[in-house]
Each structure stands twice: as structure tokens, then as C-alpha cells.
Design brief:
Strand order of the largest sheet: 3-2-4-5-1-6-7
CATH superfamily of the largest domain: P-loop containing nucleotide triphosphate hydrolases
Radius of gyration: 20 Å
Strand content: 15-25%
Number of strands: 12
CATH topology of the largest domain: Rossmann fold
Number of domains: 2
Structural class: alpha/beta
Order of helices and strands: EHEHEHEHEHEEEHHEEHEE
CATH class of the largest domain: Alpha Beta
């Protein structure tokens, strides 16, 4: 899918999103500790979402632990579709006393498990601008170790309106408020793959097809049940909103099982499923559930090309 989204991610004056390129532990601490100290000196609250190793470095540099909240990112670090909801929760909790909030969030780039995960993590960085454009007021610093992948720095810069260099913040000239629906088109399915057209009344057969592919790759039990639930939700959306039918493809790829759903519908909200449903919300919870059940969810959609959703489930072992 290559059609650009018509949506723009233009953060409002109350939300700031800043990239901090660094190289090595010393530069990481220098830039992030300075950012935290600025916040503490101004009476602001701080949320830090980094690896345990990086958190230890910051704890040693910033002694006022009572004023800095270190959050456990174990459950969401490798799940880009869950990260915006996690930040919504962390910021709401930290801002409960009315103080301004700063955050530091570093994705686990050194432990990315696939190209698809890397693409979704970059896309998440851009979607943050859209998710928080209307508030609440906070400031997010995103450290990025250029020693990991210098070539990807321009892609990261496209996602951040500001950049920090030598302790100073300036507008990021490479920031692009309009980007394609996602950064890269899908790769071709791994061969061989199974294909199954579906329509109303075919959901039991669709689940059987997924179970058969899962059995070939050793996926069973709770994880298969979760995949069945997610697949049913996506296929139901195809039937209701994608022209009444769709096509399922299933295959094994490296260490994961992939289920792909194609239909003729158009999903015009890039944030669908990524933000927390409100308590009184009557609809729109389906894709949120799908993100919670699968290890990775990829969506490409354009008015003239339809919608493709890929569900990734990691295989045992």
C-alpha cells in the first residue's frame, strides 16, 4: 500500500515530542538526566519508560527517586500497537495532582525481532503526534542510539517535531506532518501460504483453517484461542464494513504465524485500536482487543486499495 494518508500529525502547543540522538551510555545519561533535572527544577512530574539497564543508569545520576516514576515496559515494549494506550495511562496517573509532566521513552531498537516490528515502532512514533495533538499537556523525549542504526535516523526525524542536540531543543527540519499510512508496503507472503475466501457464515470454517495452519507450526492452547478471538474480530469487521467478504491468508514466517485479512473497506482512522476505549464507549473496542491479543498487528488501508490486516503470533520456542 503506497497511498498517503490525508491525516496530518500536527502537535498542539500543549504537547511536545522531541528526538534525542545519542551514541553510547555516557551520551544517553548526559542528555536524559539533563532533561529530567530541568523538569525537577521546574516542579514537573517525570515518567521514564526505558530498559532496566538504562533505568539503572538514570537512578544513579538522579537521586530524587521520589519525583521520578520508572514504569515497567515489559508487557508493551515489543508491542507497538499497545504503546499509545500505555502512555495515556502513565501520563494520566502522573498528572493526577495537576503538575506538568515530562516523559522519556526509548523503544527496544537493539532487540527488535523483525522488520515488521521495526516499521511499526517507527509508525508508532509518528502516531504519537496525532494521538496527543489535542492534549493532555506533556513533553516526551525519545532517545535513539545512532550506534544501533545510523541509517534509520532520518526516518526517526520525520516523526519528531523537535530534536535535542547538546542540551538544546530546536525544531526538527526533517519532521513530516504528512506521511504514508505506514512507512513501508507489505512484503509478499511467505510461500507456501494457504488462502481462504470468506463471507457471512464462514467464520467457523475460517477458524478451522487457522487451527490447521497453527497445528503445522506447533501453536496450540491459550495462544491459539487468543488468535482465534482476534481473527474472528477482524473477519467480522471485513464482513460488516469491507463489502461483505474478505480473503484470509496464513503462513509461517521465521518464528511466528501470520494471518492476513484483505477486504475492500477503508479504515480512515490510523489510531483505531491504539488508544484506550473510554468507559462509556459503545463501539470501537474490537481493534483494541486485537492489539492486546496478538504480538504484532499491521494495518495498511487506502480508499482505492482496500484494507489489509496482518496478525502476528510468536510460535513456541
Amino acid at each position: 500500500m503506497t497511498s498517503p494518508s490525508t491525516s496530518a500529525a500536527t502537535p498542539g502547543g500543549d504537547y511536545r515530542h522531541e528526538l534525542y540522538p545519542y551514541s553510547g551510555p555516557d551520551e544517553f545519561v548526559q542528555g536524559t538526566a539533563g532533561f529530567i533535572q530541568e523538569a525537577l527544577d521546574g516542579g514537573e512530574a517525570v515518567v521514564v519508560a526505558v530498559s532496566q539497564e538504562k533505568a539503572s543508569l538514570l537512578r544513579a545520576a538522579i537521586r530524587r527517586d521520589d519525583a521520578v516514576r520508572y514504569v515497567d515496559t515489559t508487557e508493551v515494549a515489543h508491542h507497538p500497537g499497545r504503546l499509545i494506550g500505555a502512555w495515556q495511562r502513565w501520563i494520566t496517573e502522573q498528572a493526577s495532582d495537576g503538575r506538568p509532566v515530562r516523559g522519556i521513552g526509548e523503544s527496544p531498537w537493539d532487540k527488535v525481532r523483525s522488520r515488521a516490528e521495526a516499521d511499526e515502532l517507527r509508525y508508532h512514533e509518528w502516531l504519537l503526534n496525532m494521538a496527543f495533538a489535542q492534549g493532555p499537556a506533556w513533553w516526551l523525549l525519545c532517545p535513539y542510539d545512532i550506534a544501533h542504526e545510523q541509517a534509520a535516523l532520518p526516518q526517526m526525524a520525520r516523526c519528531h517535531p523537535e530534536m535535542r542536540t547538546d542540551g538544546r531543543t530546536a525544531a526538527c527540519e526533517d519532521y513530516d506532518p504528512r506521511v504514508p499510512y505506514a512507512f513501508t508496503p507489505f512484503t509478499a507472503p511467505c510461500d507456501p501460504y494457504d488462502e481462504f475466501p470468506y463471507a457471512s457464515g464462514d467464520l467457523p470454517a475460517l477458524r478451522d483453517k487457522i487451527a490447521a495452519c497453527a497445528a503445522e507450526h506447533g501453536l496450540a492452547g491459550r495462544r491459539l484461542r487468543e488468535l482465534h478471538l482476534a481473527a474472528t474480530e477482524v473477519a467480522t469487521n471485513s464482513i460488516r464494513h469491507g463489502g461483505g467478504q474478505g480473503v484470509l491468508r496464513t503462513w509461517g514466517e521465521e518464528d511466528r504465524l501470520v494471518c492476513e485479512f484483505r477486504d475492500a473497506g477503508h479504515l480512515d482512522n490510523p489510531l483505531a485500536g491504539r488508544t484506550m476505549p473510554s468507559p462509556g464507549q459503545s463501539g470501537g473496542r474490537g481493534l483494541w482487543l486485537v492489539h492486546q491479543l496478538c504480538d504484532l498487528v499491521e494495518i495498511r488501508s487506502a480508499p482505492d486499495e482496500g484494507t489489509t490486516v496482518r496478525l502476528h503470533t510468536h510460535l513456541p520456542g
